Every structure is written in C-alpha cells, then in structure tokens.
Amino acid sequence: MKPGELSAARRAGMVGSAVRQQLAMLPGTVLGPRRRLSSAGWQTVDAPDSQLCRSALEEARECLTEPVLMHSVRCWQYAAAFADIDGLRPDPEALYVACILHDVGLGAEQNPVAGCFALIGAERAQKFVLLRKKDERTAQIVHEAIARHMDVETPKGSEAALLHDAAHLDVSGRRIRDLDPHCIDLIESSYTREGFAADFASRMKIESRRRPRSRAATLWRSGMHLAMKSNPLERRVIPSR
C-alpha cells in the first residue's frame, strides 16, 4: 500500500470511531458550553508578520478556490481561539502556514507515492517551507499538522491538534459549544462561508473515487456529508457588522 492508505481493518475501525464521534456531538448541539472562550475583547487574529506567511497566502490564493481559501483562513482564526481555550502556545508561523495550506492536496491527481490528499498536501507544504525558509523544524511541524488533520481523534502536538480541531469545527461543527457566539460571529462575518459546503463536498467525492483507501474517503463514506449538512455553522445567521 502507498503511504496514507489504510488496510480494510483500519478503515473499518476508523468508520466505527467516526460514527462514535458523530454520536458524541449530538448532546453538544443542545447542551450548554464546556470550556467556552470569553468574548470580552476578543478580535480576529492577524496573520504572523513574516515573508513565509505572506508567501503561503499567495500560494493558497493561486491553487485554492475561493470557498476553500476562506475555509483555510477560518481555520487559522478558529485554531487561534482554541489555543486560548486549551492553553496551548503553538508556533504562530507554523500554525498559520499549516492552516492556510492544509487543503492544497484536496482533489489532486493520482499520486504514485501518496494515497491520501492530506499526505500529498503535507509533502507539498513541507517543500514550500524548505524552499522559502530552509527551516527544518517549521517544515516538519507543518507537515505533521497537515498530514494528521483528517484523523478522527485529535492528534498530539499543539499545531497538529489546533489545525485538526479547527478544520473539524469548520466542516462539521465539532467543539462549537466551546466557543462564545460572539467569537464565532466575528469569524463568520469576516470570512464568508458562501459556497463552501457544496465546493468541499464535490472535492471529497473526487477524493473518495481517486483514493478509496484514504482517511478522507473513509470519513466520507462513514457519513461525513451528513455531518456537514447538520453543521450549525451552515445554518447560523450572522449579524451585520
């Protein structure tokens, strides 16, 4: 098997874990918050002021559709919010680059050495960092975060955990009750969600066909499309700013 592909047994186990996660989310949609971020003074977070981050945004603009680009930027904002809640101190530059570039492999053509779009994107982003900064540590953090963002469970490592939870929140609403509505409204009104669900779903269908043994395909077949449809963020009415 290619790196990134799962055996039949692991795919079955992943389906079971995904279903349990979806069921666990149900009480969270009607019960009160757990570790809610205080909204007092909270504002959207600027990108780190570095050439690497500016280049990453330019790269994302060139290779992502507008809905997926906005998803990537929202992931940076939600990751920053989760960092406050979870008491994590990630490398801001590495986290930003990982968030902005985490879907650059989504819908990619067949790859002879990688069987998952997350791994394809991770390797592309790692090379991107090494080419522009020649920083092995940052490149490895970015690679790990992107490679693990489709895991069912939150991975270890601050940057990987924050990108994972931010992406899963934006796609399916996981952990939404940890955030104050004011925080969510600021992010959602600043970075439009228009067209995202349809665009992302179409690309996940492509992934499921092209890389049927990947984590992405397994999650899609386990009911990810239903989780997307029931995401409270898709139904949220954003107040005018």
Walk me through what this model shows.
The longest helix has 21 residues, at 8-28. The protein has 241 residues and is mainly α. 63% of the residues lie in helices and 0% in strands.
Short description:
With 241 residues, this protein is mainly α. The protein has eleven helices and no strands. The radius of gyration is 17 Å and the shape is globular.
Low-confidence stretches: 27-33
Instruction: Report the end-to-end length measured between terminal Cα atoms.
Output: 50 Å
Shape: globular
Q: Counting H and I runs of at least 4 residues, what is the number of helices?
A: 11
Helix content: 55-70%
- The structural class is mainly alpha
Task: Tally the beta strands.
Answer: 0
The succession of helices and strands, N to C, reads HHHHHHHHHHH
Radius of gyration: 17 Å
Beta-strand percent range: under 5%
Chain-averaged pLDDT: 88
User: What is the makeup of the main sheet?
Assistant: none
Features:
single chain; 241 residues; mainly alpha; 0% strand
SSE map:
Blueprint: H1 8-28, H2 51-63, H3 66-86, H4 92-101, H5 117-132, H6 136-147, H7 158-172, H8 181-190, H9 196-210, H10 215-229, H11 232-235
